[in-house]
Specification:
The chain is an alpha/beta fold and 360 residues long. The chain has a domain at 1-28. The protein has helices at 2-29, 77-91, 105-108, 125-129, 152-161, 170-176, 186-189, 259-262, 267-278, 295-317, 322-328, 340-357; strands at 41-47, 50-55, 58-65, 68-72, 95-99, 119-123, 150-151, 183-184, 198-200, 203-208, 211-216, 228-231, 236-238, 284-286, 292-293. Strands 1-2-3-4-5-6-9 form a seven-stranded mixed sheet. The chain has a six-stranded mixed sheet with strand order 10-11-12-13-14-15. A two-stranded antiparallel ribbon has the order 7-8. Strand 14 (284-286) and strand 15 form a beta hairpin. Helix 11 (322-328) packs antiparallel against helix 12 (340-357). The N and C termini lie far apart (76 Å). It binds zinc ion. Residues 102, 104, 107, 138, 222-223, 241 line the site of zinc ion.
Length: 360
């Protein structure tokens, strides 16, 4: 009796420990710039010869043809090295094309691993973002102190304001600050990103081994060099950090991170670019974050942006202040979405700043 009473708290403690070890990687995965494997690498078939491969909450996609493999997003050097070995063992054909969904380091890094056999393709905007100057940055990471550099202070302001939502972790900053001077230069930021061999501007078709893959620039949204990858035979679409951002998990119903505000792209353009994806003829959206989604589910994040835009636009026309908007725009129909409590006001503020800045 005495023993069993004593052992019960011990057992509870063990359960708590186990739960903590299960839960904490998931929490870490919500850090949108976390660079390293969080839940392990994996490969999962989507349809036919089309597969999703993943590194924690980050995913790439690849199509196997008899002429070789077409891969979108190498993610990072360690993952790309692992993936190259897996592909060689399982499919016995080389990677012939690597496509970048956009130039951000947490999706585009690592392609040098495939450079011996592959042609790297990206939207023309990637050329400008890799010309030696600072690129368009995600997560509201901008040169706030106007010293012409991205330094620790610039990064830590958005990181501290919205931990796990905007910015990047201090440890990741230290990791990419190769010479430890407290400044991340464009070269340090893009050290693991290989320059593309080929650029396109609106649309491009890749043919390989009897298969075709279509690339489409949907317009600007999260980045200014976005590519949507469409697999017409498989009726599958891939895109990263748009439609489903790094906060999205199983359910697509999740308020957007809205950093930046909205990454410096007018909300109207976001909405237009989402509609360009919705216009594609597909059954499955298998993007860089989240799960697999139907076409009906893909329409939901765009509808959220439209509703947010309409509400803030109307409040501006009525002369309301930002504080009044935060109190009165409840977006009731989204109260069951992930991050509703945490990010509703932030989304209103981001839309307010966006509409004020890009007034039409
Ligand atoms: Zn991104």
């Amino acid at each position: 009796m005495k023993n069993s009473l004593r052992s019960r708290p011990a057992l509870l403690w063990l359960v708590a420990l186990l739960m903590a070890s299960i839960v904490s990687p998931v929490l870490n995965a919500q850090d949108k710039t976390a660079p390293r494997p969080v839940m392990g690498n994996q490969i999962r078939q989507i349809k036919g010869n089309l597969y999703r491969a993943g590194n924690g909450a980050w995913h790439s996609i690849f199509l196997v043809t008899r002429g070789g493999i077409i891969l979108a997003d190498p993610l990072n050097k360690e993952y790309a090295t692992w993936l190259k070995q897996q592909l060689a063992e399982r499919f016995h054909v080389p990677v012939k094309y690597v496509i970048y969904s956009h130039s951000h380091f947490d999706h585009a890094a690592g392609a040098a691993v495939f450079a011996d056999t592959a042609t790297i393709i990206a939207h023309a905007g990637v050329a400008a973002n890799m010309d030696g100057r600072y690129p368009q940055m995600p997560g509201d990471m901008i040169d706030r102190n106007n010293n012409g550099l991205i330094d620790r202070e610039d990064i830590m302001i958005p990181t501290t304001a919205d931990p796990g939502i905007c910015g990047m972790s201090a440890s990741f900053f230290d990791q990419i600050d190769l010479n430890k001077d407290g400044i991340v230069t464009p070269a340090e930021l893009q050290a693991d990103i290989a320059k593309p061999d080929l650029y396109y501007s609106e649309r491009m078709t890749i043919s390989l081994g009897g298969k075709t893959v279509e690339l489409m620039h949907p317009g600007n949204n999260h980045g200014n060099d976005m590519t949507v990858v469409y697999f017409p035979e498989e009726r599958v679409v891939f895109a990263a950090d748009m439609i489903a951002d790094a906060l999205v998990r199983k359910d697509i119903r999740s308020l957007p991170s809205a950093c930046g505000p909205f990454d410096g792209t007018p909300l109207r353009e976001w909405i237009r670019s989402y509609k360009a994806v919705e216009a594609l003829d597909f059954d499955i959206f298998a993007g860089g974050h989240g799960d697999f989604y139907t076409k009906a589910e893909v329409a939901l994040p765009g509808q959220f942006l439209e509703d947010l835009y309409a509400a803030v636009d109307q409040a501006l026309a009525q002369g309301k202040s930002l504080e009044q908007m935060k109190q009165q725009i409840m977006l009731e129909q989204y109260k069951d979405w992930a991050y509703y409590q945490r990010l509703r006001e932030k989304n209103i503020e981001a839309a307010y700043l966006n509409l004020t800045k890009f007034r039409e």
